[in-house]
Amino acid sequence: MKLIFEYEESITGHLPDSSDDDSHSLGDLPRELIRKELPLPNVSEIDVIRHYSNMSRKNFGVDIGFYPLGSCTMKYNPKINEDIAKLEGFMQLHPLSHQSCIQGSLQLMWELGEYFKKITGMDAFSLQPAAGSQSELLGVMIAKAYFKEKKEKRTKIIIPDSAHGTNPATAAMCKFETITVKSDSRGNMDINEFKELLEEDIALVMLTNPNTLGLFEEKVLEISDLAHRNGSLMYCDGANMNALLGITRPADQGFDLIHLNLHKTFSTPHGGGGPGAGALGVKTHLSDFLPLPRVVNDGKNFALDYDRRRSVGMTRYCYGNFGMLVRAYAYIRSWGNELRKISEHAILNANYLCSLLKEDFELPYDRRCAHEFVLSSRKLGQKSALNIAKRIMDYGFHPPTIYFPLIVPEALMIEPTETESKETLDEFATALRKIAKELKENPDFVKGAPYTRSVERLDEVIAARRPNLRWNAHTGLEEEDGKKMPGINEREDRRQK
Amino acid sequence: MKWRSRKKKEKRRNDYRCVRQQGGYEVIIMNYIPVTENDKRNMLRHIGVKSINDLLIELKPSIADSGELGLSNPMSELELLEHMKRLSEKNNLMKYFIGAGAYNHYVPAAVNHLLMRGEFLTGYTPYQAEMSQGTLQAMYEFQSFICLLTGMDVANASMYDGSSALAEAVLLSSSYNGRNGVFVNNGLNPQYLEVLKTYCEGADLEIVNEINEKTTCVIGQNPDFYGNLENLEYLSDRAHKVGALFITCVVEPTSLAIVQPPGYYGADLVVGEGQSFGIPINFGGPYLGFLGVKDFLLKKIPGRIAGMTADSKGRKGFVLTFQAREQHIRRERATSNITTNVELMAIASTIYLSLMGRTGLKNVAKLCYSRAHLLQEKLAKMDFKLLNDKPFYNEFLVRAPSGSSENVLSHLLKEGILGGLHLDHDNILICCTEMNSLQDIESYASIINERMLLK
Q: Across the interface, do A396 and B3 touch by the CB < 8 Å criterion?
């Protein structure tokens, strides 16, 4: 498929030609500032439509098939919420409008914050972060500001070795040192090692609960208690909140801060890698540090409050990914007080699928799982997780997350979510078992997969060694190491076919 | 070809398809769980437990239950839509003569139609390249568009928004040269400055008043917050003289269709907000941060990057590349913690730029420029003093006749016009785009004229 830059010059017709408009030209701009050349293509609308329609057909989404990508909660995204997010009153509202003109949006944000408080047990929420990772950054900034105000010098953050990569990366962005605690034989953070490492310079303990193995941290109450007695704060990476809705509240587990990923738990579409939305919840002692502005309600009207001296400041332009907040709000309202069913069925589906697969694969921590589980394909050979992931594509499924968490060799991390039927889970399990068999009988065949996608297995080494990261007029076919390199002449190939 | 068999669907019924009495009618509540009661029994039997509750007890022994959530009743799709419509109608839409970081441009219908294709909308980060060639090629095209527009060598696949992209560019700069002073030229969007301060506080960087050997980077916004367009070569020279990097921030990128790209006047990094390219104003988000750099900074760039490669048969394909910079591989040594960014918005802008093309985008820019200048001339005749001392693009700062600004703006508001952003004193920052018709501009001016005559 060619690039949009490789179409022959055609006609674009958007907006009237500005020369008809009035007498103003760019004449009063200094000549040196006027752009000499704008190297963009002119492609006709029909060709643009076909280009991106065809491009989308090389993609895969929840709307196309089962997408059990662990830790990402790829559930169905209700279509009504897309329509709602596009209501003119929401979508066409300028963020800097007069307060009297934004009451609907502020009410929505305020109420959504209240729902999150009920769901998590936290005391205050900010909806400003653009994604989970930005929420984490905000959470660590708040911890930093909190200890600075208390004049305590705490420079370290404890995470378990099963943690998401964002946790240590976030710590580093705020100049904290990361201390990693290993997991015990039941997949919990090792409490004895934790006790040894919990010193007075620990600012924060970051836990994911259920953790990335899909297991509930069984000692979370004890960990929280120890951390608090040490003067440290407890941060919950809420990426796995889809397991806990209406079942248990993170505040009751002793967490002081939590972030929610609205694109995971609250069904806003993942968009090929965002936009997500993060929400950061805190207990009262940290609420003054939340970013500006805060949405406040005096019983009659809603307003934006910028007057908070202890706040860490702003973390992005305006108020958050509002369009995603609308979808999450609509999702929560549609479920209302039945929200717990989501998590119950996420847990049911995960345990059922796990029970179908644990005979054919290794289950390194054989405990009751929450909304996801991690298998190991170690016995099926080196790189077997990768080969399984590639081969499952040919069966019409998206692969699970592989090689994560890092503590499980040849890890397959599977999260079915509550929106899948038993039929789909059965079909997926059958396919995985079949692949395990294929790997034993004809491993070379599996190593060549996938065979049914628009491309076969792609060479990531060449991509990194000879970076081609953008189009330019000179991109073309080259021969090197006997390998044909892709380029614009592909159009010729296609015509010949 | 299709492996999955399509069994005849059994009649679906489950107890969670909650039926509620309302005014004598049964209302069926929305439910996205397809597991039937019968399925559930079989699944529980296979797992080896009696009920879902048994699963929960084994899952989290001794942890308190949430109890009643205290949320409202579930809603049917129809009820929900009505409720949300009512809520949205509590907002009042205006004719916007305001920008200040969010620009009201026309979005061609085709953008949304393509964007709503489930293949784009409901996929995730393309970790599995063969499954995600659509997203990956769109990323590659987006990166190319950003490079072509800004004059940079490499761009990433997007950041959260313009303000956080700027903050990340500053962190990049500090990690590149190990310095910690950040110099911000006058005219940076004040919200961007606030965000920058927050990130700097976290990362132990300092915003400083002079450019010297400790300065990691120099930041200039173009056009600046007041709409001023400038050749920033002098700023770039000052930065480079002391070994600092020069960052150009572009918040209204339609300007790039008619003014020289930042690469022309020496930018090492260009960051900005891509909302103008086909993304609705949406009360402030989701928007589209972009970040482009010169080649020598490639290995330091945060976020996702798509690269072209070949498959085992030599066919062109795309993958996420240089992942060793990223948090899921490098953890505490990653270039940033960013993971989910705003890919769908990047696709929107890629489609927008393709639809507009060179000709359409120039049209937009010229219309923005000429309409802003037209309004400014009309206002000048009514003693609204222009405060810009440089050529401006589509935003300009005026001083209303003494003591009148509040009055003027509230009067416009009554007539359905958001007349601008009220800054200090009588200063108003006004913006025009192609959405402000000649007629709108005329009524803006005549409302003020009437007001002045009445006074």
A: yes
